[in-house]
Design goal:
Largest sheet: none
CATH architecture of one domain: Alpha Horseshoe
CATH class of one domain: Mainly Alpha
Structural class: mainly alpha
Helix content: 55-70%
Order of helices and strands: HHHHHHHHHHHHHHHHH
CATH superfamily of one domain: Tetratricopeptide repeat domain
Number of strands: 0
Number of helices: 17
Distance between the termini: 37 Å
Shape: globular
CATH topology of one domain: Serine Threonine Protein Phosphatase 5, Tetratricopeptide repeat
């Protein structure tokens, strides 16, 4: 099938961010795991301590930084067994991710629960995630919501974002965009990039908050600067369409490129269309074909039909070149 590629229909199947006005709870769970390893030392040393325990915490943190998870576990297990919530949390993380031990979700849940029962916010959050995803325990949205809320009420940004996503999707709680926006705002104010990005969606669509393109741009920009690809796409789309800002194809191209380089399929589609139409960049069918091929491989709507449109203007040599570029492409994550 041949698809028509025009400037006014490129974004017809997407919102500004290309993913609707909210992200799912499972997506937030997966994203949280990406950054967890880098943040682990801050989590286990979040409470100021002195004396021998402080030294052991430092030793455990140092073991984590050098990737010696076996040593971190040897240090942590005795104190976790004595009821220290920080080490119980750390053991839970190691079992959850298979760091220094075979992955064991049930063991992770057990240690998270011990710490969560003592009021440890990070453990409450992790336990909530385990219930939501059904890892190590039967899936239970009610329990997942309960533990997530406990952590969110203590100011845990990840838990606030997850609870917000539950309200946005109606998972485990009645759908309520106003409540979702409130929790996303709390997490966003703490610098949580996913929450900032989704808050941009809500302001763009006017869901749970009054529609405000300027606010949408502000939150997209905060998340985009942290490397959030969805926010980069959202920011690019505001520039592309001229929503709340002067239309600027050059600025749109920059942000679409950054998101596309990370593997954002929606940005890959729009970037391809801009190259095909020569919007903000010289017309380049080879590059357009390349991006549409990558987007199609990620299931982007209409990408294959759009690629057929581009291919109709290309020589066999150009198509072969584009296919070679597709084979050589690798994502460039910013987070």
């Amino acid at each position: 099938m041949i698809a028509t590629i025009k400037g006014d229909n490129i974004l017809s199947a997407t919102t500004a961010s290309g993913r609707g006005a909210h992200v799912g709870t499972i997506m937030l769970i997966r994203r949280a795991e990406v950054a967890l390893k880098a943040a682990i030392s801050a989590l286990i040393l979040a409470v100021s301590v002195t004396g021998a325990v402080a030294g052991l915490l430092e030793d455990a943190e140092a073991a984590f930084r050098r990737g010696d998870y076996g040593a971190a576990m040897r240090i942590s297990r005795p104190l976790a067994g004595k009821g220290d919530a920080r080490f119980q949390f750390l053991l839970g993380e190691m079992y959850q991710h298979g760091w220094g031990t075979p992955q064991d979700y049930a063991a992770a849940v057990s240690w998270f629960r011990k710490a969560a029962d003592q009021g440890d916010a990070s453990s409450q959050y992790e336990l909530g995630r385990m219930y939501v995803s059904g890892r190590g325990v039967p899936q239970d949205e009610t329990q997942g919501t309960e533990w997530t809320r406990k952590a969110a009420d203590q100011g845990h940004a990840g838990a606030q974002a997850l609870l917000a996503a539950m309200y946005a999707t109606g998972q485990g709680v009645p759908q309520d965009y106003t409540v979702a926006a409130s929790w996303f705002q709390k997490a966003a104010n703490q610098g949580n990039a996913d929450a900032q990005s989704v808050l941009g969606d809500l302001y763009y669509k006017g869901q749970g908050v009054a529609q405000d393109y300027a606010a949408a741009m502000s939150w997209y920009r905060k998340a985009a600067d942290q490397g959030n690809a969805d926010a980069q796409h959202g920011l690019a789309s505001l520039y592309y369409k001229g929503d709340g800002v002067a239309q600027d194809y050059a600025a749109a191209l920059i942000w679409y490129q950054r998101a596309a380089d990370q593997g954002n399929a929606n940005s890959q589609v729009v970037l391809a269309a801009m190259y095909f139409l020569g919007q903000g960049v010289p017309k380049d069918n080879v590059t357009a074909y390349e991006w549409l091929s990558l987007a199609a491989a990620r299931g982007a709507k209409n990408a294959e039909d759009m690629r057929n449109t581009v291919a109709a203007e290309m020589t066999s040599a150009q198509i072969a070149k584009a296919q070679r570029l597709v084979g050589e492409w690798k994502p460039k994550p910013e987070r």
